[in-house]
Amino acid sequence: MKRTVTVGNVLLGGDQPVRIQSMTNTDTADVEATAAQINALAAAGCEIIRVAAYDVHSAQSIAKIKQKCSIPIVADVHFDHKIAIAAIEAGADKVRINPGNIGSEDRIRMVADAAKMHGIPIRVGANSGSLGKAYRGMDKSEALVQSALENIRILEKIGFEDIVIALKASDVAASVRAYRKMDALTDYPLHLGITEAGAYESSIVKSAMGIGALLLDGIGDTLRVSITGDPVQEIRAAKEILQCAGRRTFSPELIACPTCGRTRIDLEALYHQVKALTQDIPQYLKIAVMGCVVNGPGEARDADIGIAGGEGFGLIFKKGVPVAKVPEAELIPVFEKELKELLQ
């Protein structure tokens, strides 16, 4: 089990659930826009948010942003230790530094001293795009691990152990290997992610493969699904990945058969109607939409409730047992009635 790290009012590691993170794409110096986006992300289920601290002014803006938001804020810092210190002094709940570009050991020490003084953790973020020169000829996964360990040792040497580790690459296989190696070497909490994963369709595949593989191994204490576009999409995707991996539950799971030659009902339309009815239910249920009455109820026996289509009619079933046989036009109204009874 990983050690526990506190980020604002959120605990990472230990026996805590895997926490969902995202990053704003607003200008951090624009306090109103950044706070509005953070609040929208929090409403969607984001638990920790990262903002770009690209100069001292943007870092200092964190103080005003925190007055308008309730979730912990992580300052993302590159190249300049002074920016990291300014963010810490402005009230950042965690600071992220990158081993390949923050500078000398003395500069890392200054950041660590400031973090220790303010009681906040440091995320050591090794990224394949910004590794130091000494690691550029190595196997990518090993380079990520060794780069992160180098900076962890510096922090440990000066007595700082309030650490979270991230090892990110756009190469899914290299990322997975790196996290597995690091998981075996340390008990610091791990922040999972596949960086530069692209727009929604590409990112969903890459993130589900990489993050999902690690979650199924029991690895990971917090994660971000990186998507080029609206960061609210990242929260929805993270929830889906976590739920599919069995690590957390958020909402109903909707299963549906792919259809075959026995299908005599517009299953795709039926699926979307059921999804619209159930997507805002704030609890876990397994809901099935099956294409035929021959195998449908049996194949979805462990579903809490479902529909199996026939020719001009369909069955409503609960736990694999039919409870109503109705004309196709009445399937959704009767399903909704049975669902309400189930929820009550």
What features would you describe in this structure?
The chain is α/β, with parallel strands linked by helices and 344 residues long. The protein folds into 2 domains: 5-244, Dihydropteroate synthase-like (TIM Barrel, Alpha-Beta Barrel); 253-343, Sulfite Reductase Hemoprotein, domain 1. It is built from 12 helices and 15 strands. It has an 8-stranded parallel barrel, surrounded by 5 helices. It is elongated and about 75 Å long.
Q: Roughly what percent helix? A: 40-55%
Largest sheet: 8 strands, parallel, barrel
How do the strands of the widest beta sheet line up side by side? 3-4-5-6-7-8-9-10
Shape: elongated
CATH classification class of the largest domain: Alpha Beta
Q: CATH homologous superfamily name of the largest domain?
A: Dihydropteroate synthase-like
Global mean pLDDT: 92
**Uncertain regions: pLDDT < 50 for 5+ in a row?**
none
Order of helices and strands: EEEHEHHEHEHEHEHEHEHEHEHEEEH
> How many domains, as an integer?
2
The name of the CATH topology of the largest domain is TIM Barrel
